[in-house]
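Appendix B, example 12.
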Amino acid sequence: MTRKQFMGELRSSLEGIVSPMVVQQNIDYYENYINEQIRSGKTEAEILNELGSPRLIARSIIDAAGVDDSYAQTEYYEDKQEETPEDMFGGNTHIFTMNSTKFKLGCLLSVIIFIFIIYLLFHIFNAMMIVLGPVIIVGLIVALIMNLTGR
């Protein structure tokens, strides 16, 4: 991997998730770091090998930034090859990550609603058994008597 590929992958992994300012700060930081290491005698390949995956670095930056969904990036393309979700919905699309507060609250609310529905179904079934239980027993007794008497 070259420095240009490393920086491109780092940038593309960060864009749309963190603000452009955070993207640029981190690109500048890693450019300066690589330059300093080259001045100290290391090769570009050695430095990039030590740094590791730019996607993993981006994930660490995103986690450290504590990203919620307060920032959303809309991308615009000069030569459109296919229609993107941003184009379909008027370019005002939010990008939600699994670390976003709204995503976590949505999951929690879904679980609470699911538990409430199960609770209601249990109580409805219980109430039906209280009302229908005696009716079913009487019906079985009547059917048994009719069967035994031959009517």
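Confidence is low (pLDDT under 50) at residues 72-81. DSSP finds six helices and no strands in the chain.
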